[in-house]
Design goal:
mainly alpha; 0% strand; MetI-like fold
Length: 271
């Protein structure tokens, strides 16, 4: 009797796109070291990388915390919380990031200063609290606040989808054992939801790094702003924006590869 042949393992295709990107990156890195103009431009823009990463990661961390709160509000049993959370998500998602940057920087920050000084007028007069001025709000933190608010609405929807993906039977079984709702959420729902939403959150991190280029409109000294200033003073627009694009590609593609790896690990865990 003929024995069935063992199943063939699927062949792994060579990612030619990745090889092309790596070769392009190596070529450009060699160009930066060999060409004097590119080396000077790279040195001028290098400190902007730290600002870009700082703004992106801090805004992303705040957006995750705020998005989780909004997602739990939308899934709440109380209708008022659901309506408020849904209102927040729909309004924030409908506003372009650049418009929200300007709104937070030039409308939200001054209004917050005015409310602070008005609410604590008596303690401020007695010297208990410091009076605030608009100069106390650095443009970098205004940009971080705007990016956090903008991305928290999208992250809230990611968390909501991840929480709803947890089988309802597990929640009902835990509640039948006498666990309170907050314990069920913390011990059963959230650990599984976090594993489900990790790849989409990684994609949002890549997106927020790209959108962080918009903070240059507020004068924040990120890669884009430094490139804009340098190219305007030297007229080396082609070379400068080549370096700007190269730096963003290095950051975003590296993170995209990490996200792909996490996604494959997540699929393996589920399987």
């Amino acid at each position: 009797m003929n024995t069935p042949a063992p199943p063939r393992r699927p062949r792994r295709e060579i990612p030619y796109w990745l090889l092309a990107i790596v070769l392009l990156g190596v070529l450009f890195a060699w160009l930066i070291t060999a060409d004097g103009d590119y080396a000077i431009i790279f040195g001028a823009l290098r400190r902007g990388v730290l600002v870009t990463l700082w703004v992106s990661f801090v805004a992303f961390a705040i957006a995750i915390a705020l998005g989780l709160v909004v997602a739990l509000g939308r899934l709440s049993r109380h209708r008022i919380l659901r309506e408020v959370a849904t209102f927040y998500i729909e309004v924030v998602r409908g506003i372009p990031v650049l418009v929200l940057l300007f709104y937070v920087a030039f409308v939200g920050a001054p209004q917050f200063v005015w409310l602070w000084n008005a609410a604590f007028a008596i303690p401020i007069e007695r010297g208990w609290f410091p009076a605030m001025s608009i100069r106390d709000f650095d443009m970098t933190w205004r940009a971080i606040a705007a990016l956090s608010i903008s991305y928290s609405a999208f992250i809230a929807e990611i968390f909501r989808a991840g929480i709803e993906a947890v089988p309802r039977g597990q929640v009902e079984a835990a509640e039948s054992l006498g666990l309170k709702r907050r314990h069920v959420t913390r011990l059963i729902v959230l650990p599984q939801a976090v594993r489900i939403v990790t790849p989409p959150l990684g994609n949002d991190l890549v997106a927020i790094i790209k959108d962080s280029a918009l903070v240059s409109a507020l004068g924040v000294q990120d890669i884009t702003q430094l490139g804009k200033v340098y190219s305007a003073s030297t007229f080396l627009f082609f070379e400068t924006y080549n370096v700007v694009a190269y730096l963003y590609l290095v950051m975003t593609i590296s993170l995209s590869l990490v996200v792909r790896w996490l996604e494959s690990r997540t699929k393996g865990t589920r399987g």
